[in-house]
Amino acid sequence: MSPWLLHLYCLYINNLILTIAFGDLSDDQEDITSFALSCDDEMLVTASRALLLKQWDWRQANCTRSWRAIHTVPVASMTFDSTSTLLATGGCDGTIKLWDVVKQYCTHNLKGSSGVVHLVQFHPNTDLLQLFSSSLDCGIRIWDLRSSQCVSVLQSHYSAVTSLSFSPDGNTMVSSGRDKICTVWDLKTRKAKRTVPVYEAVEGVVILPGSTDLTEIGVKSKDLHFITAGSKGVLRVWEASTARCEDENDNPRSLTYLFHLPASARLATVTAEHNILLYQLPALTTQQQFVGYSDEVLDVKFLGKGDSHIVVATNSCQLKVFELLTNSCQILYGHTDTVLTLDVFKKGSLFASCAKDRSVRVWHMDSDSGQVRCVAQGSGHTNAVGSIACSRMKASFVATGSQDCTVKVWDLPADCSAEGGIRQLTARATEKAHDKDVNSVAVSPNDKLLASGSQDRTAKLWSLTGEGTVGLLGVFRGHRRGVWAVCFSPVDQVLATTSADGTAKLWSLQDFSCLKTFEGHDASVLKVIFVSRGTQLLTSGSDGLVKLWTIKTNECVKTLDAHQDKVWGLHASRKDDKMVTGSADSNITVWSDVTEIEMAEEQAKQEDQILKQQELSNLLHGKKYLKALGLAISLDQPHTVLTVIKAIREGENSSELLEKTLLKLRQDQKESLLRYCVVWNTNARNCLNAQAVLQVLLTHLPPEELLQYQGARSHLEGLIPYTERHMQRIGRLLQASMFLNYMWQKMRVAGAPSR
């Protein structure tokens, strides 16, 4: 991680992914086991299972150098010194190698550690030339690099030492371990000053800078303080002299790594779920979050003012809210089981979620800070709640469908701001809607109708105008498998449904008849939405495809193939210019509508073509054949080029004019002309013009130059058979003409005077 946090580096299987910069350095041959970034942010070095060390130019994502690690087994840890000239690597073979990365050779081979060397770190004072390491024996070894000897072993921990942190003056060190203690060391005497019991397996420790005002987190004295991160998922501040915990910062998940960014006064932590959290010192407030792995994406929706965020339901009980501009993420806790689906109210600041824990929650996003809080919750279903729909006109109610075969309508409190705490939702209506699981519910644009789709192969239309009841208006029958999704048209009185039978259907709300059927997916169609002001449909399926349909023609006008698994999430922005898809392949894709851009480009292209055609006509009229020929070739229009050639040959002194014009063309234009001649020569009507051009090119250009033209050999080979055929045809015509002349001579009128 760079000290200024312009880039974030994460080890992921066999790739180094640069978050925020959105690039990656990949080593496709072997898994990467360790990596280190130099203190000056210039060098990134990786170690792989192939026992290779690679140096990367991470800005260009290029490997600039690689060399053998000399270790007999993979490298487990590595670090740079503060001058960025020495690199230390700790191997699983119990040895430590030091490398001069500037002069590119191994300077030290330190032996004596027992087992895997999982921690190496240089003393911050480069004049001391000391290296600290730890291995399976739980001791901390101090190596004197002048003599290549281990000068001391610090014994205090009874489990793996996970982290070391040095004070600014370099005289004090704090070590942490999974034995639930931290030890404060006096490096002058090389003895433990104090052992601090922290009551959790500690993965990282950072000494706080003494020059910073830390009163916001309860630090009042100027004594040494340090922060720990561990299995309880809590950042805790400790006073070294008294072993007292000064402050705690809650995080519901265990932490596996802690890193200090002194230049920007921030802390970075990594959770067990592969999420990265950034805290601002001295207040320890969460500044940014990055999600490392999304698992299966079950639903995704646009959120916020201007659709600046997306909210994602993954295969977990947490919700994730991403800011699209920065990829920063908030993780929302509240549900106790997997969140299944989401829906957003019209204004975009409120949204609702439902989960396998049989509950419904309503969340509010602050328009200024972007922070999301749970403002209401309700429970009442007897099985998992698999579908939810929000009211369209104003935030007044939500409707849910469950695996208990019922549909419920929940009234929202009048004030849904985050200040009032979490309110309880009550169901104003409950209806036994279907014989099997309710897969989808949708609310009409006027909030008067509710549609539901079920695994029982039917969709139903309900009235929401009754007090405390939901009235059945009609049933849509026609799908051969369970109905996965229902959606109302924003402009017409029609309902769209999708099914596991691979089709999407449009139904009339007047007589419940099927108006249209859209077939094209090879598997279940999971989601459907209306776009382009209700004139088109977007569908997503189990085949990983998203299809765009024009309702008027029943035609699939576009197929988007960006996912490898079921596309569960599909949502369009309020401006109808973007859409987002989420799939079981863990990928979330944001799409932009480029219809207007493509139309503008096509219009500009047509206008340019018209202008050039007019210019070409003017050049031909003015008999400026060279410019006309060059313009026609630049337009890549063989027929227009042929027209210019014909115009040249129809004039006086045509052979000389053609020769003069063609020889003034550039080489690339001659290449194009040769390519056109091959096409013209296949047609008897145009072969004379082609042969005239070929005569000029073959007569005046040396063979060496012709063979340098792209595809010249294949072009010439294509010319030969048709030229032979034309010669045979001309020969037959010549013979026929001679026969006619002979017959004419013999058919003279008897008695006519001979000439």
TrEMBL record:
InterPro entries in alphabetical order: Utp13_C, WD40/YVTN_repeat-like_dom_sf, WD40_PAC1, WD40_repeat_CS, WD40_repeat_dom_sf, WD40_rpt
GO cellular component terms listed in the entry, alphabetical order: 90S preribosome; small-subunit processome
Localization (cell): Nucleus, Nucleolus
Signal peptide annotation: 1-23
Name of the gene: TBL3
Spans of repeat WD: 68-101, 110-153, 154-195, 332-373, 378-412, 431-464, 476-517, 518-559, 560-592
Matches recorded under PROSITE patterns: WD_REPEATS_1, WD_REPEATS_2, WD_REPEATS_REGION
U3 small nucleolar RNA-associated protein 13 C-terminal domain sequence ranges: 613-747
GO molecular function: U3 snoRNA binding
Pfam family, one: Utp13
Organism: Oreochromis niloticus
CDD domains: WD40
UniProt-listed SUPFAM superfamilies: WD40 repeat-like
Keyword entries, A-Z: Nucleus, Repeat, Signal, WD repeat
Coiled-coil residue windows: none
Protein name per its UniProtKB record: Transducin beta like 3
